[in-house]
Each structure stands twice: as C-alpha cells, then as structure tokens.
Amino acid sequence: MTPAQLRAFAATVRLGSVKAAAADLAVTESAVSIHIAHLRKELGDKLFARTANGLAFTPGGLRLASRAAELLGLQDRTILEVQQAGSGRRLLRVAASSLFAEHAAPGLIELFAGRADDLDVELSVHSPQNFASLLLNRSVDVAIGPRPATLDSTMTCTHFLNYQVIAVVGPDHPLATGAGTSAGAAELQGQTWLLGPSAVGRTGMVPSVLRRLGIPEHNQRIFQSHAASVDEAKRGKGVALAVAFAVTKDLAEGDLRRLSGPQLPARGSWNLLTLPDREAPAAAAELRRFVTTPRATQAMLRGAGVTAGRFRPAIHVTLWS
User: Fold this and answer.
1) Which residues contact 248 (CB under 8 A, 6 or more apart)?
2) Beta partners for residue 95, in sequence order
3) Does residue 262 or residue 104 have the better pLDDT?
4) DSSP-H helix ranges across the chain
5) Beta strand pairing status for 266-274 and 142-145?
6) For residue 126, what are the CA distances in angstroms to 96, 143, 204?
7) pLDDT number for residue 261
8) What's the pTM value of the predicted model, to 2 decimals?
9) What whole-number percentage of the chain has pLDDT above 90?
C-alpha cells in the first residue's frame, strides 16, 4: 500500500464518491479508481460497492478506512517530527473549543510554552464533536473543551477547570432593574440573544443552555467572538451569555448586570483529551500534567482573553514559542 492509495481511499470514504474524492485531491477520477483497484487487488477485498443510496462498504473496507486515516496521520506526524529534529524545535498542536480558546487558552499556552525554549504551541479552534477524529487521525496532539458524551477507549480525558456561564445585560436594558434580576422562561425567550461562535452547532455549554431555555433561532445573533457579543450587550442591544470569570470586572463596575432565571447559571467543565502517552508526543503528556497545577489555573483565570480583532475562525492558527 502506498500513501497515495490510502489518501484516495480515505477521501472516497470521507466524501462518499470517487468524483468528490478526485476533486478534493485535485486529481482525475481515473487516478482515484486506479489507486482503489490496486488496494482491492492487494488486500483481496472489494472494499465497497455502489448502490442507489451511495457507497456500501464491506467490513474490510470500514477497517481499512480507519487504518488509512491513522496511517496517514502517523506519516504526517513522522515528517513533522523529523523536520523538528533537524531544526532543534518541537511543535505541540492543540485543538480547542472556541469558548476555551478565547477565554482561557492565551494565559495557559503562554505560560506553558514559556517553560521550554525549544517548544512551539499551535492553537486551532474546532467543534468539540470533531475532537476524537482529529486526535485519531493525528491532526492534533491535544484537544481541550467539554468532556465528550462518549469517550473513545483509546483516549485519556483529564478534567482541570470548572466554570460558569451566566446571562448578562447592559445597565440600560429593560431587564436591568438591579443586580441579580430574575427573568422567567417566556421573558427570556422573547429577548434578542447576543452570542459568540460557541453557539454554532449542538455540542458544548452554550448550545445546551440555549436548548434548555428554548431560545428560538430567530432571536439569536452570532458574533465573531464572545467578547464582541458582550460588548454589544453593554450597549443594551440584548442578552449575552458570558463566562463568569471573564466579566467579573464589568459586573463590579456596573457595565453589565447579571440575570438569574431557569437553567441559569449553567455550570460546565474543561477537559484535556490526548491519545495514550506511548502514542502522543512527550509535550502532550507534559501539558496534561501542567494543566492541573495551581499556576496553570491562575494563568487561565487571569488571562484577559482575546479581542474581537484577534479572534479568527477554525482555520486560524496561533503560534506561541
């Protein structure tokens, strides 16, 4: 088996057709078909068949799909490690949920990366529902965010920080009659909700709160960052969901008022996911141990987060060294 053959098959599985795989790999359909034909001949397995509903994979085809992603990820990681060895530097790739990336990651990663002169940390933002595949495919070394509903047996999960999500409004908002203002479910459902990127999708604390409160989609406005949504709330434009420790100063100075109501405040936790130590780079194990220390907790809570101008979508990568 060659990497080109495995990439062709993995793309076909992921995208559901040879045509889509060819477009994704920027090759011809015949090239993808030839690669798959070689795999069928070498493995003695049909791998998949075309049906009216798409591709139907054999048990062997499904097993190869899993192994192909793992092997290709391992190849990419090996190339990266060889390059790092030649340059005398290490790279730790961290995937994080948008809520953690904005509010807690800057302080944590700056402190962690500063402990080693030869370490670079690459942070990218992803949906928590993709954490397992990113780790298993070796696309990242560490994933940080909410604990998965089901945890793959090949992964370790380390809980390290609890947090609260609260609802806040500006001092001029109609609901801001005083600190600790209470609002009923129907009243909350009729408000405009100002939300950060963590509201997108169905996984994580913010989508869960919105579902429990029954907030209709037409009352939800999504901003590029959580900081931007809170800034809009300060102007009385609606209700924002905020991480409690990130808005402590705004509440103390009267720029925001906290609302109480059904399902509020909501309590969540951040967890660090990695593959077992024998399969993950040493820096991943180092971060797993470091993240539970008091120094790490203080760095996360003290961090000012990132501004709306610094936040970028999932394809953005930030380097600390």
Assistant:
1) none
2) 124, 143
3) 104
4) 3-15, 18-25, 29-43, 59-87, 98-103, 105-113, 131-136, 185-189, 205-213, 226-234, 248-252, 282-290, 294-302
5) antiparallel
6) 6, 9, 12
7) 79
8) 0.68
9) 40
